[in-house]
Specification:
The protein is about 50% helix and about 5% strand. The chain has about 375 residues and is an alpha/beta fold. A five-stranded mixed sheet has the order 1-5-3-4-2.
Length: about 375
């Protein structure tokens, strides 16, 4: 060994703590029935050999060579929810108030991740439904096409067809097991996607944005980030900084919410020149069919090149009163605010029924008495 054994033991302990593992959790992963095993390794009371090192580094997802390096930079903490995030504009940063609101969610997110592992339920990944091996778009147009292709693969994999999505939060939870939460973010911020230190993903949308009806698109856009940039976070602001990652997420969102095939069929049935003859009432018909807002539908039509930029600006400035005269339903608040504890309760209840979560663990996770927990089954 190029460094002394005491340093290796200290580093093993440091890595375990940085990853948030307890001594008991690691002992169980090693197949040991007595909880003091890991403590003895770290404190020098248990013999340390290469087999134990290999087992521990496999659990900690690091290379064994890391322990023998002179530099300890490799032992720094994993990126947290904010430090891994890419912001759409370099000058943009979330305010401390927004960060504090998000931080308040992270303990529940950690519990949700533990419950998901307990029931053997992984978060959906891109490779679960999309088989394209090389994703390296060279232009915004190519990136958008890749996003659309993935959304079509998603619908095909789960036999969704081209049907509208009635409730986007329930839909995402059902198919991906990724929680979606509304939170008061900075006024300019549409939404935020990232993972905590334990790789548990979370999609956030702003409950304080002036255009609440567009949040459905924002949510699916953030889902696109989860699939295509799973190890990065993204804060999406209301600006024009359109990166290739943003174009992929936009393409995914527009195709999942409003499939191209269904949209083309609508225009074929109408039989008119889109750019010159599209009226507000036609967009309203599309909104009512696809369960999306007027502003969002106009944006998707622009992304799909059904209307030009001038047409998009014309439609997006229509006032609520103008739309109501056309019998447009009020969709100012199309989403329900769902707390992370609701998702957690759903997973814990599943674990109780499966027998993979016992009532004591459920009580601790949900802050409930055992009688209250039993009522969940």
């Amino acid at each position: 060994m190029s460094i002394d054994e005491a340093t290796i033991r200290r580093r093993l302990k440091e890595i375990r703590k940085n990853l948030g593992f307890t001594e008991n959790e690691v002992a169980k992963k090693l197949g040991k029935t007595y909880n003091s095993y890991v403590s003895k390794i770290e404190n020098g009371q248990q013999k340390l050999n290469i087999d134990i090192i290999n087992e521990l580094t496999k659990i900690y997802n690091i290379e064994p060579i890391t322990l023998f390096q002179e530099s300890v930079h490799a032992l720094s903490k994993p990126k947290d929810f904010f430090s891994r995030a890419e912001f759409r504009a370099d000058s943009r940063l979330l305010s401390e108030n927004s960060k504090n609101r998000i931080k308040a969610l992270l303990p529940s997110l950690r519990k949700l991740g533990k419950a998901m592992k307990a029931i053997g339920q992984p978060y959906l990944q891109l490779t679960d439904f999309y088989s394209r091996k090389h994703i390296n778009p060279q232009s915004a147009i190519e990136a958008k096409k890749i996003g659309q292709e993935a959304a079509r693969a998603f619908r095909a994999k789960y036999n969704i067809g081209s049907d509208p999505i009635a409730n986007i939060q329930s839909f995402i939870w059902q198919y991906t097991k990724i929680p979606v939460c509304g939170i008061e973010l900075d006024r300019e911020c549409w939404g935020f996607y990232s993972k905590d230190n334990f790789d548990n993903p979370l999609i956030l949308y702003s409950t304080d944005h002036p255009f609440q009806e567009r949040n459905v698109f924002t949510i699916v856009h953030e889902l696109g980030h989860h699939f295509f940039n799973p190890n990065e976070g993204h804060a999406d602001f209301n600006d024009d900084n359109q990166t290739l990652n943003e174009s992929i997420a936009d393409g995914f969102a527009q195709e999942l919410l409003v499939p191209t095939q269904s949209l083309n069929e609508f225009f074929e049935n109408k039989g008119f020149d889109v750019l010159n003859e599209l009226k507000s009432r036609h967009i309203i018909e599309l909104c009512q069919y696809f369960n999306v807002s007027f502003r969002m539908m106009a944006y998707i039509l622009y992304l799909q090149r059904k209307i030009n930029l001038e047409g998009y600006h014309k439609f997006k400035v229509l006032r609520k009163s103008d739309l109501e005269r056309l019998n447009y339903p009020n969709k100012e608040n199309p989403l329900q605010t769902i707390e992370l504890t609701v998702y957690l309760r759903d997973v814990v209840a599943t674990g109780l029924r499966k027998g993979t979560i016992n009532s004591l663990l459920a009580s601790e996770m949900l802050n409930m008495t055992t009688k209250e927990v039993e009522a969940l089954i």
